[in-house]
Amino acid sequence: MQDKLEHMRQELAARPDLLRLGALFSETVLLEVDAAEYYLSFDKGQLAEITPGPSRKTPWRFALRTDAEVLAAFWEPLPRPGFHDIFGLVKIGRARIDGDILMLVKNLRFFKEFLALGRTEVAA
What we know:
Strand content: 15-25%
Helix content: 25-40%
Radius of gyration: 13 Å
Order of helices and strands: HHEEEEHHEHH
């Protein structure tokens, strides 16, 4: 998972359109996959730091909680219905969003497009 997140960080850095979209987003987001926690610290749209957890001392604004099987389906090049969107995952009961939902909604397009960067192939 750490390698995938690092790849997504590199993809984000190479996308000026996404950086412009996230220019006002400077928050920490918790991505919980199975029992593993990853704190994604964004600074003006850049993914500044990826900190593995768990940590009770790291504050986060909102969290996306799911499992590895669901993320693998989400990151397929053409995900099946329900697995194509984070709210689709919530609707089918395979993910949960906690925390400041308003912050997520204000930056929804940026966050959704960032997560979709996982759909690109990792170079072998």
